[in-house]
Every structure is written in C-alpha cells, then in structure tokens.
Amino acid sequence: MSASNKGFYGERKQTTCAYCGVGCGLDIELHNGKAVKLQGAESHPANAGRTCVKGTHLLDTLGEHGRLLAPQINEQTVSWNQATDYVAERFAQTIAQYGADSVAFYVSGQLLTEDYYVANKLMKGYIGSANIDTNSRLCMSSAVAGYKRAFGEDVVPCDYRDLEQCDVIFLVGSNAAWTHPVLFQRLQLAKQNNPNLTIVVLDPRVTATSEMADLHLQLEPGSDAGFYNGLLAYIACQGLINNRFVSEHTDDFFAALEKAIAWTPEKVASFCQLPLEQVQQAFQLFTSTDKVVSFYSMGINQSNSGVDKCNAIINCHLATATLGKPGSGPFSITGQPNAMGGREVGGLSNQLTAHLDIDNAEHRSLVQNFWQSPVIADKAGASATGIIDKMLSGKIKAIWIMATNPVVSLPEGNKVIQALQQCDLVVVSDCVDKNDTLAYANVKFPATGWLEKNGTVTNSERCISRQRGMIEAPGQAKHDWQIICDVAKAMNFSGFDYQHPQQIFDEFCRLTGEKNQGQRLFDISAMQCHSIEQYDKLKPQQWPLKADKSGQLQSHRPFSDGRFSTTNGKAHFIAVTPVLPELTAPQAALRTKGQQDTPPTAQISLLINSGRVRDQWHTMTRTARAHQLNRHTSSPQLSIHPTDAARLNVYDGQFIALTSRAERVVLSAQITSDVKPGQGFMPIHWNRQFASHANAASLYRTVVDPVSAQPQSKQVLAHASKVLVSAQLHIAMTTELAEQFDANRLSFSQRCPQQGFVQFSLYQEQQSDCVTELIDCLQDQFKAQLKWLRLMSSADGQQRLIAMHGDQLAIYVDYQTLENNAVTAPPNSQWLSELFARNELQNQHKTALLTGQVGDKFVNGEQVCSCFNVYQKHISQAIEQGANTVQELGEKLQCGTGCGSCKPELSRMLASADTNLIAMEKCQ
Questions:
Q1: Which of 201, 183, 139, 142 minimizes the C-alpha distance to 610?
Q2: What pLDDT is recorded for position 598?
Q3: What is the Cα–Cα distance from 477 to 539, expressed in whole angstroms?
Q4: Less packed terminus of the chain by CB within 10 Å, N or C?
Q5: DSSP code string of 671-717
Q6: What's the pLDDT score for residue 36?
Q7: What is the mean pLDDT of residues 465-481?
C-alpha cells in the first residue's frame, strides 16, 4: 500500500476540499456508496497530505438533514419541469417587457468551473446582459484589477513553492494561520528548515499569524498603501532600482515614483502609526534579498482603495525585479475554493470568459462566434452592490442567486432584504433548506453539494483540480450546470445540450485557445478532455502550460521571460495616492425589543475590523453542521482592548452593542490586548440562523473601490455601549425539537448546534414577564409528548427544568434573573452531550441537571485543539507535568499535530506558564 493509501481499505477516490482557495486534495474512502473516511492527499501539489481542521471534519457536514430536497415555488413543492418552466417564462417575460438588463444573476466561488461557465454563457451570450456578478466581488476583485492594470491580465505570478524558497516574506492583511492553515503549515515548516527565513506581518491586531513573525507592524487600519509607497521611495533613494528590468520590461515608472517619493520613512511612520525604527527595519528586510514575497489577502482587497493597495505592492516588486522567479513576487491569496475558476470563466460583470475583455470588440466577436450565440453583452453589467441598487430602483426585476448568501455577506443587510422583498422574482439555488437569503426566495432550486458535485476548481496558485462526485445526492437535488441548462433550454436557447460536465470543460478549454496565439497566458486548450474517462482521470494541473520535448504538458512560471500580457509586452507601474478608509460617524441606531436607554457617558466610538475565526467559514451553512467546529468559538465575540472595556465598565463575557447607521449588533466581550485601544474585531460568520443580532456586514455602509467595485468590509466606525441584561435563558433541546422552536422572542439570542442537540441562549434587556411566559409556552408546546420536571430557587430567582421523552433527555432549561448584569456562560456542552446521548437518564443525572452540578471531568476550560478535542485543562496539566514545548505537548496530547492551527495558542499557554513561574520565583 502506498503512503497516500495508508489506512484505506475500501474504494478510494480523490477530490478537492470545499473550503478556502488553497485547493487541498483529499482522499475519500467509500463503502457501499457512502464516504466513511477522509485524509489529505499526499499526491496533491497544494497540500501534500496536509489538512486543516475544517477540511478534516468535512464528512461530518454530509447528510440529508437541513438539505433542500425538492424545487419549490412560493413555499409549495413542485416538479422540476414546473419550476424550470416557471423561471424560464418569468425571465423571458421580464426581458421582453423591460429589456435584457432587467434581469441579473448573482453567483459564487462555491460553484464549479463548469457551473460558472454555463451561467456566464447564458447571461452574456444569450440573454445579452452582463448583469452577472459573483460573491468573489467581495473578496478578490481588487486583486484582479490590480494584476490586470499591472500585467495586462489577471495572472497570479507566484505559486506555493515560493513560500518555501523565499528569504523574506511579508504577510499583509492576512491571518493565514486561521484563514489558509495549510499554507501556514508550509510556511512553518519552511521556517523550521531555514531559520534565516524572515517573516514580517502587517496587521492592525495581534493574530495567530503574527505570533510567528520576526517583525509585526501593527499599523493603522487601511494605511498599507502608504507603507508600500514609502517602500518604493526607499528603494529609489537607496539606489536599489533594477534599472535594466525597469527600462526593458516596464512602463510608467517615473509617474509612480513621483507619487511615492514624498513618502519618507518618517511620513510612513506617521501615516501608519508605527515606530520609525520598525518602518526602517521592514524596508531594509524587503531590499536585503531578491527572494522576497508579499503575501496579501482580505486586509488589502476589502478597501475603498484596494486596487491601489495591490498596485502599490506590485510596484515594489517591479522596481526590484522580484517576480517571475522562484521565491519572489506579489502573491494574492483567494478565499474560496473556486474564486480563481470564476475569474477564468469571466464570473465578474466586467469580464468576458477566458480572460477576454468585455469592452474589446474583437474579444466580443471571438466569444460570440465561438458560442454561436444570438447576442453578446457589449458593456459591463452591475456589480454585486450595483445589482442591489438597481433592484431597489426597479431597474432589475428578476434575480437568480446561486450558492451564496448575500443577505449576510453584502454590506447593509437590511438594504439587501428590502431589495429582495420588492423584486418581482427572486430565484435561489442552494443545497440547504434555510439561510437568511432563502427566506426571501419565490423559487428555490435544490442543488447538489460537495462530494455530489462533479467538475473542476482552480486554486490560488492557478492549479486546476477535479472536485469529484462520488455519493448520491439527496432528494431531487441537481447539479447547478444542469439547472442552468434546463432553464436555458426552456427559454428556447440552443447551445446548452450538455449531458456531462466533461463536455462543458472541453468546450471551455477550446475557447481559451481560440485565436490566442500566445497573447494571453491563460490557455488551457491542451487540457481538453475528449472523453468522460479522460476527464475522470484528470490530474491537478497548473497553468500556464507548455509542452516539453517529449510532448508532455509542463507548467511554467508566469513572466519568467520578462514579457507581460499588455499590448507592448511591458508591465505597468501605477501611480498611487494613499487614502485611509472612508469612515462616517454612526447615526443613532434602531432599538431592539426591550432595549434599555444607555447613558451617553457609557458610549464610545470604536473602529471595527472583521474577519474569520479559526474553525468557521463564511456564513456557517457548512461548518456549523460539524459540531466539533462549534466549540472553539461557540458564540460571536467582540475583541476589545482592556482600556476600552474599562471605559464601558464591561467584563469578559458581558455584552456590548455596536451601532452604525440604523444597524445594531450585540456580541459578548472578549477583553484582550490583541487589538489596540479604540479598535475592535468581530467575526463575519454569524447570521440570523445562529444569532439574532450578530451580522458583521450589516454594520458596513456601501463604500466601494472606484476601480474594482469591491466593498470596504474591513473598517467601520461604530458606537459601542454596554448592554444591561435583566434575565438569561439557556435552553438545550434535541435537534428534532429545535426545528420547532422560535428563539427570537427576547431581546437577542444565539444558537449553537451540537451533536444530537442544539443550545440556545436568550437574553432579555428590560425587566418583563416575557421570559417566564416563554417558558410556559415552551412547556405547553411540548406538553403532550414530554414529561416536565422543574426546580426553582427563590433565593436567586433561578429555575431549571428538564423534559423527558420516555427515559431520554429531550429539553433542558436554565433560567436566571440577573443582578448587576452578571451574565453566565451557557451550560457545559460536553456535559450536555453525554446526557443527551444516554438511552436512559438516571435519577442522579436528573438531579445534576436540575441543580446545575457539572461533573469534574467536563470542567476543562475552552477547547484549544479541534482536531483531537484537547482543552485548556488538559494542556495546563501537561505543562505542569513537564511538557515545555509545543512539540512535547503534541507528543503527549496530539494537540498541534493535526492541522496545526492551534500551535499559536499552545505557544501562548506555554509562555503564560513561564511568566507565572518567574513571578512565583520572584515572590519567594
């Protein structure tokens, strides 16, 4: 058995992970058509056998529960023919009455390339509008525009090996340890193998990534362009410009330098709010080697000037010729599994497919002739936020949303809801039966999910891999490409008679080579698959491609010959004028049910940043199905500096309200020095399915980059105030009963799925009888099927109830009125998990529940390692027993030996133990 087959005994197939843009290969073991085991594919170039904690638990997200199983029109189940005919007829009527631009598609980096391709073909080549945009607009469109302006084509000039071959790496606006863990593992190993590798992190807050940095620049949020303008000026003033490269292979250098030259280290230090010596040290490190990588992500892209920030970074690599060769280059990392594939097929509204330009008449003619389509879109369509604006103005009257959740992810969520409510037709294709967007759909199409879908994806290093379908789809779910083609045929369009995704991929490959003649690096025509068998055997392949002497396809490094995809073959410097985020003082917010008046002195302004947490992804529709992923961060939190917490008189775990314009979110306080005073950080994931008032995007105004139309989703100014809670109600109930429970009856609530049950936490801000009324309603709702037991304490106003279904626990209720805002954490989920799993609950278990007596074996603190279920208590005990390094902790407990994402937290616990030991020694 080969190494990649280790531990597999049944049928094995390889696919690609469903999460971030790293594009990890996964080996799946199948038994009787079911996926029973998963491990990283050692043969895949992206991960070489590594996985992250989210990928490790992908099989836990499978199953029929919570899936959309049949088409619906206005909440009524219908046949596929009825649904497709209805949508086709409504779209055709709308187009006939109001024109092609009256309809829109909003698609997703979750789609496979084949899905993306036919969606663009239908909209741009048959309907004749470019009103198709993708949620990649929210994460990667600034990077796309930056590369296009500089290189003439959207080509990432780096690959993952550069992380291991560089001498210096700048991680800019990226917490890769949590967002791209497998790449961070590769970087950790590179540092271990080469201690001289220097890691510089530019990030406003302390993160798991910055823990590994040799130099952490905790710069002012949004000031990155000033830093890189200063770096360009430093390069010039130190005589470090690669004059030959700049003169022979670039244009517009002096225009860019003219804008940058005033950015002295002193000016950069002031603009970025950094110590001068740190700025100088960082500049010296960048110019100390020709093997330097700038690795950047959402902290750069999600900005009102994201494109300029990207080009400020690229300018420095052009000036020093640090690109087009191993260990160097400006490396933008994508966030979704097929964001890159979407860029290749023209998923954005300002693109044509195959890296062709919508504003180029020759390109439009090429695509139309190839497709033999009746029309071709001749101008850019509406972007993601533009689609919402046009829906509100009545110009877009029908929209089809595929595999994305814009109510949660787009700025100003209430504005998005309003747009959906007044749109004549809202069609949503998704694999889940509930999310914040589906609530406003007139038509729901059930789509296949991961391991059911069959097609290709492209990762951040331009590697095309197969995502293979290997299990049966539940209910009547169809592949997205099939649904799109069915609707297209129902609209009487030809060109959509595909029987298999291989035919779509083959057509797309041929189109990339059509009249290319080397003008565009994106040419995968040599990857054509002329049969399903050839398609099924397709191995991961990176582009650009060249045939070697034996005729075998080999990838080659972009721009290694100094030639770019511009008209004259030269790269463009871009003159950049740095600007800070566009911020507006928050207006008074709408008050929620039961909200108390807050004294003005208890309100402060915070600059809020947002991003991912370690074990969740996007809007949690997939990750929340794996209960292990809900334990590391089980509820939405606001990271706030101790100084600001003191100003609000807030303690850890108490609630803080953030208000911006007419929006309000409520989060528990996580007091930490990881953020600077005056700043805060909140996660992007929580939405109305998991918390009533915790959607980060709802705080953001619609501010977009003028070039890329990407929203500014990293900085917003918000009022922060303490939330005074008068009562709390913690409820745990079986998953089946939880489907029947409405948690949105008090001021705000949170929901956390666990294995076999769901935990609810409900909070009331104003003294009222609504909490006891809710408990009474709950008892009445399930009175016929459950037996209730209650214990009430008159001393502290606390009540606990349990409901039994036969001998098994069905519901647990813990209610308490609060003095002095003394909010307590929900009941221990490990403890409840054991009790809900019991076939028979004994009297001692019932007594423990009614008295809240959690067994000692469950009091373990917070979970640190999700891969091996290791908690703080286990780690502290191991340290006390002599484990002094992360490696020793791994040997003893396995923590840190899986995905590695918990290593920074392990290091912190070790450092804290050392500090306590030193303090104790000084006291003696």
A1: 139
A2: 46
A3: 27
A4: C
A5: E-TTS-TTEEEEES---TTTBTT--GGGG----B-TTT--B--S-EE
A6: 96
A7: 97
